[in-house]
Amino acid sequence: MSTATSKRELDHPAREEIRLETVLHALSDPVRMRVVRELAAAEGELSCSDFDLPVTKSTTTHHFRVLRESGVIRQVYRGTAKMNGLRRTDLEELFPGLFDRILEAAGLQGARLGG
Amino acid sequence: MSTATSKRELDHPAREEIRLETVLHALSDPVRMRVVRELAAAEGELSCSDFDLPVTKSTTTHHFRVLRESGVIRQVYRGTAKMNGLRRTDLEELFPGLFDRILEAAGLQGARLGG
C-alpha cells in the first residue's frame, strides 16, 4: 500500500510495489539519470534547489515525481525544503547489484561521451 | 554510423552509438522484457514467430523495432524468417555486468510476482 497521511507527506510505493520496468523507465531519461547520479555522489539527501538542471521548474518537478513514484527516490519535507534521497536499500533488496551497475554504466558512458 | 546496405538488411546502431538511456527505455516495457528474457533463455536466435506475445502483430513488430534500434537485439533475415538475437557482446563491452543484473532482476521479480 502507498502511504500518504497528510498533504505534507508525499506518496511513495512500498518496497514490494516497486517494479523493475518502472524503475528502468524512470532511469531512461538523461535529466533523471543526472539527478540520480548527483544523489549517489552526494551520499545523502539533496533539496530540489540543489540541482541546476537544464529544464524548467515544472519539468524538474515532473522528473522528481517520476523518480519518486517509481520508487527510485524518497522525497520528504524538512521545513520548507523538499529533500530527496535514493532508496538504495529498497532497490538493493529487490534487485541485487542492479543499481550499482546502472550507475557504473552511466559513469562509463559519461566518460566516453564527455558527459 | 548506422548500416543498411539493402532493404533486406535492417538498420542497427553501431556499438558506439548505443546509449544507456535508450537501452533502459527499451527494457522498460513488460512485453519487450519478455522477448529479451526468452532470447536470453534460448541462448541463440529466435524468429519473430517463435514468440507468443499477448499483443497484435503490428505491436509486436513495433516492440522488436524498439529493441533493434536501441541496440539490444540484432535482427537479420535468413530466407523468409526475421531472426532475432541479443547483442550481448556489445552491451557487455559498453556496460559491464549490467545486462546480466537486469535479467537477474527480471527473474527475481517474475518469481516474486508469479510472472
UniProtKB/TrEMBL annotation, chains A, B:
<dbReference type="Pfam" id="PF12840">
    <property type="entry name" value="HTH_20"/>
</dbReference>
<feature type="domain" description="HTH arsR-type">
    <location>
        <begin position="12"/>
        <end position="106"/>
    </location>
</feature>
<keyword id="KW-0238">DNA-binding</keyword>
<keyword id="KW-0805">Transcription regulation</keyword>
<keyword id="KW-0804">Transcription</keyword>
<dbReference type="InterPro" id="IPR011991">
    <property type="entry name" value="ArsR-like_HTH"/>
</dbReference>
<dbReference type="InterPro" id="IPR036390">
    <property type="entry name" value="WH_DNA-bd_sf"/>
</dbReference>
<dbReference type="InterPro" id="IPR051081">
    <property type="entry name" value="HTH_MetalResp_TranReg"/>
</dbReference>
<protein>
    <submittedName>
        <fullName>Helix-turn-helix transcriptional regulator</fullName>
    </submittedName>
</protein>
<dbReference type="InterPro" id="IPR001845">
    <property type="entry name" value="HTH_ArsR_DNA-bd_dom"/>
</dbReference>
<dbReference type="InterPro" id="IPR036388">
    <property type="entry name" value="WH-like_DNA-bd_sf"/>
</dbReference>
